[in-house]
Specification:
heterodimer; A: alpha/beta; four-stranded parallel β-sheet; four-stranded mixed β-sheet; 8 strands; globular; B: alpha+beta; Arc Repressor Mutant, subunit A; Glutaredoxin; 2 domains; 7 helices; 45% helix; binds flavin mononucleotide; binds iron/sulfur cluster; binds FE2/S2 (inorganic) cluster
């Protein structure tokens, strides 16, 4: 297995790495000092553009480009808001930064605030993550005592404040405009766009919303320069290293850092230690959080045309395609949060669909009829299928409900529900048809309970 | 009965209010602060928050019902959240829930026979790589087996006195 250099996770193995003293001995705040004392904001922004960093929150938008959307003529200072709502099923990576190396995020916030001209930063953390909140608050306090957060960070006249804001437990608050409403003390209901947050965000002011991992990567971008940081990647226009998560039926679930462009095969068999049980082969992978459509190892890339973005992998298995924002979109799925859920052949896909649609029907904010009704209806039909009470027409009904949810709503939640549903129906249609026809209950999840006790 | 914050929490609230350009933005953190003290978000807590933040009680109520972390009914001294989303269910989340239902003699959203635990179902808690897991009060307990879960519950039960809450 390739041994990749640790960049973002360089302090993960160090005892007490969450303390300023320790973090600083291992390089923390040197990039912030450099950025504040030797660089103009435009230079910081140029490095981040050169880094080709694609947002780590799910949509993969280039961070440097997003920062450039801030209006130049606004009378209101922009806010920086960090999305630490980590709630996408299968995703558990941002938490490791906040708990193990919170100073990396604080340092990233400082540099980002300097680059975009922000003086106040809110870190919106999902409320359940009590340990993350404590670690961050401790880190901010230490940085404040040292003067890094305050009136004159590193002696430069650019006052900064960083606050942790505790969420209330609602997946939809991860959507950036819902997050802003929640930050303002309201129900976490997404806002119609435009206006985009960069123009009118928190408290009516221009606002940059970025994921924890995105901003925690900024210190390394400054330290290495954007180009060097970017070139660690195996792919073009999608730079750097990133955190990969793997959960489900593997021997060593966890969070691992590697260059952008790792393959699912490497993630599952090298990092993840292979399938949990040797007698149960790999059946399906949800590649980047539950909203990303499922992949199968037996599917081969079909891209004979030399101009096709996947042509270099023509004839190879989907799990041998490098994981990137653009490559996975070309595969008909999404890279999402880059945290994969791995399933072996004991799992019935109808039951997987039921589990996920339970999640989405529970979490829909209810503002849009197609989403509110559609998620509930999908779940009801799937419960019947799993209970052996399905009807043959239910399979087409699921397709129809999902199709009606696409593209008709205020936010991307409805698409993020319909796409994985349609993906499961397309790739495992036989299982849905069989469940509807046989009337045999299809509960399969949990068949490997207690085996987890053997995993370190 | 009206609700009042402890002197210590009042200080935290004063500082909270300096963080945001509007009072209303303190709504979620203030509700957390009150729940920590009262154990749940009672109608009195809602009135208190509305008054302090100068918004309508109905608006605070709307916030409370939107988020899962605010208890709208009284709960036992320990709240056990079992994660039942996909990664946990692949590794036995459902068994954990059924085991707790049997042990507690209650269903989801109910309180155990001994009055010490309220059982709840959670959606993905960002610990998928450490599945199956439960959250009890502020703490995550990960990589559970039925045996380690039982030991954990034994421990907490022994430390929980009921009746005095
Ligand atoms: C339903 C929904 C949930 C989301 N949840 C999260 C989340 O938990 N964390 C996150 O960083 N982004 C989440 N996002 C993406 C954000 O809206 C936004 O794109 C992201 O925070 C931008 O940061 P980035 O550009 O650094 O990735 C979610 C989006 C949707 C539609
Ligand atoms: S799509 Fe769903 S979650 Fe998004 S705003 Fe509409 S109802 Fe709410
Ligand atoms: S699925 Fe249980 S923590 Fe994510």
């Amino acid at each position: 297995m390739a041994d990749f250099p640790k960049v973002l996770t360089s302090r993960y193995g160090i005892p007490q790495s969450h303390q300023l003293k320790v973090a600083e001995q291992h390089g923390a705040y040197s990039a912030a000092r450099q950025a504040f004392t030797t660089m103009k904001p435009e230079q910081i922004m140029a490095e981040v553009k050169d880094a080709n960093i694609r947002g780590r929150g799910g949509a993969g938008f280039p961070a440097g480009v997003k920062w450039g959307f801030l209006p130049k003529d606004s009378k209101l200072a922009p806010y920086l808001v960090i999305n630490a709502d980590e709630g996408e099923p299968g995703t558990f990576k941002d938490r490791t930064i906040m708990e193990i190396d919170p100073h990396r995020l604080v340092e990233g916030c400082l540099i980002t605030m300097r680059a975009v001209g922000a003086h106040v930063c809110y870190i919106y953390v999902r409320g359940e993550l009590v340990d993350s909140i404590k670690r961050l608050e401790g880190a901010i306090e230490e940085a404040r005592e040292r003067g890094y957060v305050g009136k004159q960070p590193f002696g430069v006249d650019h006052p900064t404040q960083i606050y942790v804001h505790m969420g209330g437990g609602a997946y939809i608050c991860g959507e950036e405009t819902a997050l802003l409403n929640s930050l303002e003390g309201m129900r976490g209901e997404p806002r119609l766009k435009p206006p985009f947050p960069a123009v009118k965000g928190a408290f009516g002011a221009p606002t940059i919303v970025n994921n924890v991992e995105t901003v925690a990567s900024v210190p390394d971008i400054i330290r290495l320069t954007g180009k060097v940081w970017s070139d660690q990647s195996r792919l073009p226009r999608d730079g750097g290293t990133r955190l990969y998560g793997v959960s489900g039926h593997v021997k060593k679930p966890g969070v691992y850092e590697a260059p952008v462009g790792l393959t699912l095969r490497e993630l599952i068999y090298d990092f993840g230690g292979g399938m949990l049980r040797d007698d149960r082969p790999l059946k399906a992978i949800i590649p980047g959080g539950s909203s990303t459509p499922v992949l199968r190892p037996e599917d081969l890339v079909h891209a004979p045309d030399a101009g096709h973005p996947l042509h270099p992998w023509h004839g190879k298995s989907h799990i041998d395609v490098p994981m990137g924002v653009d490559t996975f979109r070309a595969l008909g799925t999404m890279l999402g949060t880059c945290c994969a859920i791995v399933m072996d052949n004991s799992v019935q896909m109808v039951d997987v669909a039921r589990n996920l649609m339970h999640f989405y029907s529970h979490e829909s904010c209810g503002q849009c009829t197609p989403c509110r009704e559609g998620t509930g209806w999908l779940h009801d039909v799937l419960v019947n299928l799993c209970d052996g009470k399905g009807r043959p027409q239910d399979v087409d009904l699921l397709v129809e409900i999902a199709n009606n949810m696409m593209g008709n709503t205020i936010c991307a939640f409805a698409d993020g529900t319909a796409m994985p549903m349609l993906g499961l129906l397309q790739k495992f249609r036989d299982e849905f048809v069989a469940a509807a026809a046989s009337g045999v209950p299809a509960h399969s999840l949990g068949a490997t309970a207690r085996v987890s006790g053997g995993v370190a | 009965m009206t609700f009042t914050l402890s002197a210590e929490s009042e200080k935290i609230l004063d500082e909270l209010l300096t963080r945001y350009p509007t009072k209303r933005a303190a709504c979620l953190p203030l509700l957390h602060l009150c729940q920590r003290q009262a154990g749940w978000v009672s109608p009195e807590v809602i009135d208190f928050v509305a008054k302090r933040l100068e918004i309508a009680a109905s608006e605070v109520q709307g916030v409370v019902t939107f988020y899962t972390m605010y208890h709208q009914k009284q709960v036992a001294p320990n709240v056990v959240w079992v994660c039942r989303t996909l990664s946990c269910d692949l590794r036995g989340g459902r068994e954990l829930q059924h085991h707790l239902e049997k042990r507690f003699g209650c269903g989801v959203n109910e309180t155990s026979q001994d009055g010490k635990f309220t059982l709840k179902k959670a959606e993905c808690l960002a610990a998928c790589g450490q599945a199956p897991m439960v959250q009890i009060n502020d703490s995550y307990h990960e990589n559970l087996t039925l045996e380690s879960l039982d030991r954990l519950i034994d421990d907490i039960a022994a430390k929980t006195a009921v009746g005095k809450q």
